[in-house]
Amino acid sequence: MELMRKLTRAGGALAVAVATLAVPAAAQDWPSGNIDLIIPSSPGGGFDTYGRILGKVLGEQLGVQIVPKNISGGAGMRGAQAAYNARPDGQTFATFNVPGIIQPIVLGEETGYDIDKIDWLGAMAFNQYIVVVAADSPYNTIADLKAAGEPVSFSAYGSSGIAANRILCNEVEIECQIISGYPGNNDALLGVVRGDAVASVTPINTATAFNTAGDLKGLLLMTDRDVADFPDTEKADSAGYPALASLGLIRAFGLPPGVDPEVSAAFEAAFMKALEAEELQQWAADTDSQLDPMNGDELKALIDSQTELLTRYKDVLAQSN
Amino acid sequence: MEDALAHSFHALVAGGGVFYLAIGAVVGLVFGIIPGLGGPTALALLIPLTFGMDTTSAMFLAGGIMGGVPFGGSVTAILLNTPGTAPNAATVFDGYPMTLQGRAGAALGAAGAASAIGGLFGVILLLLALPIAREVILFFAPPEFFMLAVLGLSAIAVSTEGKLLRGLIAAGLGLMIAFVGYDDVGSGTRFTYGVDYLWDGVPLVPTLIGLFAVAQIVSLYLSGGAITKNPEEVEVSRVGEGVRAVFREWPTVLRGSSIGAAIGAIPGVGGTVAAFLAYSVTVQISDEPETFGKGNIKGVIAPEASNNAREGGALIPTLAFGIPGSAEMAVFLGLLVLHGMQPGPAVLLNHMDVVTSLILSLAFASVFASVMCLLVARQLARITLIDVNYLVAIILPVALVGAYALNSSMYDVIVAVIFGVIGYLMIRFDYPRLPLVIAMFLGSVMEVNFRQSLMISRGDWTTFFSRPVSLILFLLIVLSLCVPAIRYGIRKFREGKEQEA
């Protein structure tokens, strides 16, 4: 009898143990070791810097190593593809180049990923644009530029940059000529300073960092926020172009499709917590890097409104330069 | 500025700077020696390690790496005909022939001493140029970049003496490869045939690994024996001779360093061009151009001096405008940002101590890395006495792992293997490989800036000749293309006279 009871008890314990094993204890077990972070650009750029600093803070909070993997190419598309096809076990997440990864979809190109299926964690920053000219330029407002009476040249970097410049010109109805091919945003701004082009649509934080010597003058902030370094520059809303405020580079983070919802929720919570970390705030303050913490749902809404704007200008974007 | 210098010097001596500098220089040397791994990889790996360090120490570490890599890359260029990093490609012209003649020690000595002096010179130039850097940089716009790229391409004419047609064929192939991938100006992809991997073009580093490391080792294996065919002739102890040659040939050192620092400071052209230009100018103004490519020690000194001087020059646009002058500087820029510095004119005003630390560490790292390597140069030179069968087993895996390590991409390894086959065929049928590399590297720089120039001028091609700097560069191109022909003519004329006499 005694033996029987022992056996039953053991059996029961075993059953409980098996049951515990069988239930996917994914959320408690996450993270189960080092986490890979796919960065869709080569080391050194904005996406890389944001990704690495987040990886460091998040890794410290979770007690694991976040291993950055740079997969650059195709305006963020190669990184996005790698992230999309990564194993959905919560041990790989990625930063996505938005709108770089939306643009090919809008243009009807084969991309190998579906933006609606990406499990968005949130975003670190939303870098909106500003229209700048050289400090000694005769143009002082966007209206001056519109009234120039001849095509205005704009310098642009990358496909997102060309798109931003084109959309501005169409929204404001400026006849413009885009000078593309610059290897970076700073190069495009240097082009404005040395007179390659009259103006440029560039991320606000790039313009702020570049402008420490006062080489540039802001004509239109494509945002409704106050920007300390361009206090007198007209904003999108008051100038009558509110749609321009939805344009911008989003430092977005997400998981491949198919991650266990519990793991995904735990990941998103950890992501949001990392964004509040003092170290990250301090870094942002020290480097003038923008931080606009956004959760997954807010990010999704922003991506939808960008997609809408880009779709509206599909034909403009499809023009070759 | 003196305060900042004093502060940096104190940090170097008392604050553990020497320690970080030494580690950086050793890492740089190793990464330079292994084909495929170079400054960008070393710096990228190091970024996370510097999180916990203060900025000055991080600068010493980074400076050590940037000072150590160029000399490391010259070691394999000289001993194995395989440039460790792209800018070392020009060193193989005369470095490897010296090895074949058993003068590897002298070549290494010359490369080491030239690197050290070049590095110091670059730093001095950097210090002098900081106040006027802005103005100089603003002089260079797309028409000037285009002319610089063409000037670099005209180096092909020099590097193929005697094999001009074959050189042009190789260069044509390089240009064709250069246009594969994303078109920065028109935003679309070209010649990718639906292969995603080709979106960013054929990557330069795996190509270099294939063309040089893989092809060379296959060719060596097939010919058997050791690299130096007559071991009894080898005098590996001639390191001192190489060092002395550098001091004897000081005009070559100064010329190489100046070209390196100047080209390095111009964003968008890069150090590879600097080394080639330093080499080709040296050949062109020499009294005995026919001795180059056959083991003339000046052919090692000029590009190596240029390589280390370039780092100092490349810091100027990186710091002053946040525009990286090279791939290495792009990664370095990320490091600066992580340490709370936004590059731009303000860095020079607000973070002078950091800038001087970096300058100091660059200067010391060049010297440190060179001295260290000179100490082991004798042993390194002995590599050329080893039976090639053993070398193959080491170099082939290291080269292919190097190709993989860059982006953790198997495709990069495939590219290295394909170019290994192409490279071997080129050796076998006596086509020079360097024109292919120069053209591949400069093709896109040339094309983008040509199209940009015409966009800016709205289709007016006189823009290339109406701008003073662009015009000067154009005249230099004409000159560099004419010099060999004129020289040939003079020689014929003299020979004719001698015969008459």
Short recap of the structure:
Chain A: It comes from Chelativorans salis. The complex is a heterodimer of chains A (321) and B (501). With 321 residues, chain A is α/β, with parallel strands linked by helices.
What does this structure look like?
Chain A: Residues 1-27 form the signal peptide. Chain A: This is Tripartite tricarboxylate transporter substrate binding protein. Chain A: Keywords: Signal. Chain A: Belongs to the UPF0065 (bug) family. Chain A: InterPro entries: BUG, Bug_dom1. The complex is a heterodimer of chains A (321) and B (501). The model of chain A is unreliable at 14-25 (pLDDT under 50). Chain A has two domains: 33-127 and 248-318, Bordetella uptake gene, domain 1 (D-Maltodextrin-Binding Protein, domain 2), CATH 3.40.190.150; 128-246, Periplasmic binding protein-like II (D-Maltodextrin-Binding Protein, domain 2), CATH 3.40.190.10. Chain A contains 14 helices and eleven strands. In chain A, the strands form two sheets. In chain A, strands 1, 2, 3, 4, 7, 8, 9, 10 and 11 form a nine-stranded mixed beta sheet that branches. In chain A, strands 5-6 form a two-stranded parallel sheet. In chain A, 45% of the residues lie in helices and 20% in strands. In chain A, β5 (152-155), α7 and β6 (176-179) form a beta-alpha-beta unit. Chain A is an alpha/beta fold and 321 residues long. Chain B is mostly helical and 501 residues long. Chain B has one domain. In chain B, 74% of the residues lie in helices and 1% in strands. Chain B is built from 22 helices and two strands. A two-stranded antiparallel ribbon of chain B has the order 1-2. In chain B, α5 runs antiparallel to α6. Chain B is globular and about 70 Å long. The model of chain B has no long low-confidence stretch (mean pLDDT 81). At the A-B interface, α3, β2, α4, α7 and α8 of A face α3, α7, α15 and α20 of B.
